[in-house]
Amino acid sequence: MSTSNSKRIVEDEEEEEEFEHFDDFTLASSWERFISEIEAVCRQWLADGPKNLLVKDAVQINHLKDLYKVKSEFKYATRSYCMEYYFAPSNDGKGADWDQTLHDLQLCFGVKEFLVIAPQSASGVVLDAPEASKLLSAVAIALSNCSCLWPAFVPVHDPSRKAYIGIQNMGTVFTRRFEADHIGSQVPIKLMHLEGLYELFVSKFAYTAVDWSMHHFEVHFKLKLTYRTPTYDDEDELQEPDTDVIGSSENIETQTHGKTQWDDDCPWSKWYSAEDLVKGFELLSLWSEITAESSLDMAELENASPLEADKWFLYPCLSENLAISDGSTIGFASQLRLLVKALEMSSEAKFIEDFVSVENSGSENLKSSAVVPPPTVLDRVLKDLFHEVTEAQPDSSLSEHKSSRSIKGAPLESLFAQFCLHALWFGNCSIRAIAVLWIEFVREVRWCWEESQPLPRMPTNGTIDLSTCLINQKLHMLAVCIDKRRREVKGQNVGTNNPLTSPVQEDLQVSMEFSASHGVSEGFGRKHDRNGSSDVAGSMMLLKSHKIMHAPITQDPPLMTEDMHEERLRAAVALGDSFSFSGQLERDILASDMSAFKAANPEAVFEDFIRWHSPKDWENDDSEETGVSQNNAMEVSEIKWPPSGRLSERMSDYGNSWRKIWNEALPLPASQQKPLLDPNREGEKVLHYLETLRPYQLLEQMVCTAFRAAADTLYQTSFGDLKQMTTKIGQLYVTMASTLKFLQSHNTISDSDVIEDLRRLCTTFGHIEKLILLAASLHRKFLQSPHLAEAIFSDCYDYYLPNMGTGSAKGDTKKEFDKKQQVSSRDRNLIIGMFPPPTANQSWRKVLSMGNLLNGHEPILREIIFSKRDHVSGSYYSAPTPNLYQQDIETYRMYVCGTSNDLRVALAVTSFD
Amino acid sequence: MESSSGAQPEFDYLFKLLMIGDSGVGKSSLLLSFTSDTFEDLSPTIGVDFKVKHVTVGGKKLKLAIWDTAGQERFRTLTSSYYRGAQGIIMVYDVTRRDTFTNLSDIWAKEIDLYSTNQDCIKMLVGNKVDKESERTVSKKEGIDFAREYGCLFIECSAKTRVNVEQCFEELVLKILETPSLLAEGSAGVKKNIFKQKPPESDASTSCC
Fold first, then answer.
1. What is the pLDDT of residue A366?
2. Given CB atoms, is B39 within the 8 Å cutoff of chain A?
3. Which DSSP helix (H) or strand (E) runs through B125?
4. Alpha helices (H) in A17-69, listed in sequence order
5. B4 — contact with chain A (CB < 8 Å)?
6. Interface touch B195/A466, C-beta < 8 Å
7. DSSP string covering A656-681
8. Looking at beta carbons, which residues of chain A come within 8 Å of B119?
9. How far apart are CA B119 and CA B185, in angstroms?
10. Which residues make Cβ contacts (< 8 Å) with residue A136, sequence separation at least 6?
11. What is the pLDDT of residues B114-151, one digit of tens each?
């Protein structure tokens, strides 16, 4: 079988490489045929060179940037083998420094490119030594046949031992042999110490009979010690938020009980406790060139502090959850994903109540996800929303991102936004849980309305912000209506005592803008025929009566929510061009103003009103009057009276609609007018809206508001000055705004396309959320040297971002983050601070055995590369070009890598054959 | 968005435009001049007025819904709601009255920041009443400088002589047509999958806000 097989291969070879002449190997032994096969492949690889191999079928080694491999398979006897050639495409000649990440074999033997041949079995290892050396010699023969200088390695024994043997032909006279092995337990005490390792190395080239302590052998070596910051929260790990979210708010409570979490004072901690994505740090301290002459030198070095090392590198140990974005880790993103799911289901029923009574809904989906937390949880949420409101409400616009308004949600501190955030964590955020919470929420809102209790977390003044979602606008409207009702009740009480002062109390702030001076009104306001005046209007005087003009108290322009505006717009569009629009509402407002003005200034004429209301339609003859108006009342008498001037042309036109309204207006103070906004009617309308809201309308607004509020919450995180993070957050808002704008438009019932977009948005949100958690964690760990936090974050950001920004759920997450950050000498003390001396309790647990303690912590890993260089001259051999050998070459190299309970040794010996 | 709900086949896009500025600068006259080719000395607007005009610009049939607001301070809280969803905002001043020009930056630009819900909306600065050249107190250069600072279009026109009136609206509409996000709003509810497009760039280009 193997004969025919190899024949075919030979034929193939002949076809491919006609310039290479091959003999007929059919008579050769299978061993020889095996060698020739290897040889053929090696020739092919040699001929191709790295560049061509890259084009062909080389694959990159996962975590190593600069290493590629190609492979080929063979059969010999009954076994098949796989040969791999590792190479670096950029041949910079210099051997890689161990600052960088190297392939294990490169590190062990100080080689660059190499071959590995191994049997294809489950374990991938040649089990017995004879077979291994036979295999190796086959490769060695093949390589020397094609005068190839690549080192070749064969694995031996059990794979966990990482044992190799290898050989390299180094030109005509030198051969390097390699051998590596590993002790997994019970490392001899001697080999735990630098002294013993030194002696081990020396024993490889010195005569066995020599007493080590008496002789001096100059040995060069490099040392790398790795320390890991101690972790104290091993036990906490077990209590990480489990994926079962039911009643998660309870979970959080129990977790935080008695134990401080790393993120206790972070803005998201009200909602969930996040895993610290920075598990700890590894500190690498490097000594690059040390020379030792005796065991004593080594013993001395073992007492050296890592502070004396040449270089320090810091490497963050990041949680593997950082790269996972499937929503398995709990956070805003995972809950938003559930909310989107609820949105998807929301169109299945017509009324919110339908989702509560499971029996009525036919959907299986509903039943399976129907988890509602117990009433105690519900009570607590409502209590938090309605009763535990801090009196001083911070100006939420300060804590919001500037792009926050472009998302049609509600401001972070507002009632509806807080409702949405609670809903995210209520039960498993299923549509049923949401429905239960909403119904109770509306019931509570109705209670506030019925009892005229102020609506918490909502302003009672200002105009309705139409950039927010409709529910928020409605709640704002309701808050204003409740406030008006409360004032009415109060006003009636006061009014019975003193009917004259009550209107002044009512709405002082409204027309303040017209008043230039305070306190002056006293003298003039006492007159009985004057009613509903707030203040004098500057120093203006009435045209006909030589009296000070008073600015009236006016009614607020009626508040309107978005849907009310739209009603008006639709009416206007329907009427179109044919009709001069100026709607009834505007006329009502103007008429109300005129009535109030007449009441406040009984002797006023139309011109007076215009001078106050639309000053630009009064043309003064004397342009200086405006300057005088700043003066106080004492100078009033000096003002020229009557002021000479006239109405503007357009205002004095015949049939001017303003004059018509003026003529019809009765003098009535604002307090006695028919209100422009009827709080009782508008308030009931709001409640009707809330109580009859369609499920998908609720969910659409909740999705928008929840995204916005979650982002605003995270935005409050302090993470120092990280530009990438700031930009990324800005981009998140833009993405959210452009995705969410498809919701809440009237013509949609959310289709699958929108839902799909929202899912991607959740993924994107999850990435940003994790980056923020990472940034916050780094920021608080490096408060003293923010530049380190910035540098490490920047590395992580560059590493993780390519997988994140696109919104693709799974990228190539196999690569491990390996970027180390060099620590400048002035930051070393800070790093040492991260290694607090272990407590007595901790130190007895471990037997310290390796030396080089850092604040009482021993390294978790010690790596040493010993090397011995010899001056080699070609005098022993009559080489054709003796100059070639007039150089130092590394005759012995030993790589030692050990922890406190295992040891790995790899030896490379160059010899003259 | 909401304006597209009444989409009819008679036009490709519906745009909402808004006119603001001090009282008496000629907003209503400008609008009348544009929509009905006439000039009258109109009564001051009470609150807000509204006109529709169908135009064809760049091969597209457009329906323009133009809202004309009153300049009086008293109406300002009322008119603030009309900023919402406007794709274009026309700021008008009177070249013969300096205060109407300074009020644009003191008052009106702030109103836009406060009430406009559309970050991409196009703003246009219009100096009206250029027919009264002899009484001019605001130079063209000042107008241009202001427009540059606020990132808006600029034109001087006269509602009375109808100089530049057509161009004023046309230029604004052309600019809206060039802005994809505004175009998407104006067209009849066409949805786009934003993730299939390029990811949004950082908001470096919002010079107007």
1. 53
2. no
3. strand B122-128
4. 30-56
5. yes
6. no
7. -HHHHHHHH-----GGGSPPSS-HHH
8. 406
9. 13
10. A117, A152, A154, A165, A166, A167
11. 888 777 899 999 999 999 999 999 999 999 999 999 99
Contact A730 B203 (CB under 8 A): yes
Residue A436: phi and psi, rounded to 5, are: -60, -45
C-alpha A783/C-alpha A488 separation (Å) is 55
**Residue labelled with tokens 């910035």:** A790
User: Model's pTM, two decimal places?
Assistant: 0.75
| pLDDT surpassing 90 at residue A373 | no
Distance from CA of A54 to the nearest CA of B (A): 31
Nearest by CB to A580, from B49, B84, B195: name it: B49
* Cα angle for residues A758, A764, A768 (degrees, 5° grid): 140
Q: What angle do CA A196, A201, A204 make, to 5 degrees?
A: 130
pLDDT given at position A393? 53
Q: CB-CB: which of B43, B70, B75 is closest to A657?
A: B43
Higher pLDDT, A517 or A607: A607
Q: Is B129 left (phi over 0), alpha (psi -120 to 50) or beta?
A: left
Interface test with B, best of A404, A473, A480, A577 (most B CBs within 10 A): A577
Contact A254, A900 (CB under 8 A): no
Contact of A808 with A772, CB cutoff 8 Å: no
Cβ atoms A237, A682 nearer than 8 A: no
pLDDT tens, A784-820? 888 888 888 888 888 777 665 444 444 444 455 667 7
Contacts of A653 in chain B (CB under 8 A): 41, 43
Query: pLDDT digit string (tens) for A69-98?
Result: 888 888 877 778 888 888 877 655 444 456
Q: Is A254 helix (H, G, I), strand (E, B) or coil?
A: helix
Residue of B nearest to A753 (CA): B193
Strand duo A618-620 + A645-647: pairing:
antiparallel
Strands (E), A232-390: 278-292, 311-318
Q: Is the pLDDT of residue A3 over 70?
A: no
- Cα angle A821, A827, A833 (rounded to 5 degrees) comes to 105
* CA-wise closest residue to A800 among A780, A823, A831, A771: A771
Instruction: Flag if B81 and A560 touch (Cβ within 8 Å).
Output: yes
